[in-house]
């Protein structure tokens, strides 16, 4: 015969505000009424719960879920209206009543049990059951202050459910435990529900609510905005999330992502509008991810919705930066820029223009071998790559590769594999033939590489010593270090080493 | 309401099984346990024992929030609820003492040791300064400080009792009066530890207070009764205005020097003597301390303390009745 009746209950929290505060409604939390100095945390709530009712409370942070639980627990007396309770209540919020960090788990079971209305004899009878359920092992005789958050949840849940209350109020209680305990906890809850008590569960997890509850209430700014079957309300909730996310609310975007990935994990297809919002959130975390960008664009297309040009540009720009060769994306961006839709959206328009300009330049520059050579000689990596690609192409066709282009292409290849002796040798020979100054770093790498294969090449050892005596300036410190290392590793009986170290 | 039916074979159940039918879950909650014993001597007969849950009667009573009625109804409801919860606060106050001193070797006797050091220092120095007989002054100061410690702790430590009860008060309907009960009980437990010191002083100075000492018992009871409202009021005030905690602590420190604890009241002389006469703390200390020293206190002191109790209880419970339903919002 447990029952919970709320009649026009209000909860208004007193606040002290600076006079300049305007009041009104923010996205989270209740309404701030400056003239009366209160925040309306819950507004005009009426409903009745009877045996077997399992109520789920949903809503974003600050919508009033915890306040509602405190109201139902009798901790917050309603400031207007009233609440009538029949039946024993047990609660698991962020803290268990009467818990003390200094006490051991066992002592806290006694204190909390007493607070929750058990007699000492009942507690003694249930002690083993509680300890078994919490699975805390030897920790049960250690002070609670050393417990982890998960262990606290285990202890708290075990105590409050051992009371066998007629009315059980839980606040995200199952979220903190690990999977194993969460499963045990939900079994225990099902037992409690089966014994026809009232359950009220506040949670962000729509799955948990849909599975556990027979009725769901959705709160926003302290009002009930949806009340009905668990599935319907979950649907309403999803719509509300999508709507808020569409209005660029950061929290709603994240929530949409959670909802969509929750559904995907369960093997359900999230509705397109939810998936779109989830993808928008994901793309904020991983800008430019090609698969997600394409999925989002195709979903939008399927929905018959067009992206705002700015949003589309913001999707395209990071995607192109990651994959500069995607002609389709470049064309789309060009179309956007040419349509003038980006006028006035400064960073996006400038970025798009810069990307397209570079594209145009590249196309012009690399059209002719002369352009490639010029670009590569000025140190442009892209140009070197083009030279490499061109020499590969010519070689594969069996045509002669101009020495200039081959040398520039080798610069690129040596960037990727700097110690390849064959390439170093070829590059060295080509530079000599072209009358270019020898690259000392490349030469040192060539010599050290060759010496590793042929330690007896005294001519190379002499050359290396000679390069080292030229001083620090032309050599990269790393190259120098490796050269010195090679020289010192040479066999000591070779009297030539004494040239450098007279001592 | 008696909807419990014991069946020999439930529908669909196997014959030979016992079943219980409940008309409603309230009936189910009446049963806290079921015992079935098999009596081998009589063959296949079973003894069925139901354990009736003693609390279920109370649970069926609807609890309405906010409590209907005026301040008086609120106070009556909460005080009776707090008395019903006696096992809770008796345990809470006791385990609090244990927990507070858990990681110390001497436990609560650290307090006692501190007071002992204080008494010895004061006894030696002040008996010289004030030209008092050392033995008599030791007894006077020692007993005075122990009694003062009890009375002052109602107020100074009372400042935090409701604030500290946050996790309890915000997760269930809990009568705040019970916090005061728990605190007074805890202070009394600590006083018990300090009382060892009193006995040591009496034995050490070879002094017997005689039968007069029994007068200390009603004195102590009156002081404790005062402690309930003092700690409740100080807890409520400090919950509402957090600045009051430190203010009260320093106020009580000054009070300790103003109240004749370290020095006999006569030393104030005829002009200032009235300051002590009008000090309720003086009378509260006196009705406990004087019998412990073997002196019969002036009946005026009794009336003073009784008056303080009545006025204090009225003021505290009246404001409690007015603000009880707002207090959860003050956290």
UniProtKB/TrEMBL annotation, chain B:
Keywords: Cell membrane, Membrane, Polysaccharide transport, Sugar transport, Transmembrane, Transmembrane helix, Transport. One of its GO terms (biological process) is polysaccharide transport. GO terms for cellular component: plasma membrane. It comes from the Bacteria. Its main location: membrane. The keyword Cell membrane applies. Residues 100-290 form the ABC-2 type transporter transmembrane domain. The keyword Membrane applies. It is found in: Cell membrane. InterPro entries: ABC2_TM. GO terms for molecular function: ABC-type transporter activity. Coiled coil: none annotated. It is a multi-pass membrane protein. The chain crosses the membrane at residues 109-129, 141-164, 176-201, 213-232, 244-263, 302-323. Pfam families: ABC2_membrane (PF01061). Belongs to the ABC-2 integral membrane protein family. This is ABC-2 type transporter transmembrane domain-containing protein. It comes from Bosea vaviloviae.
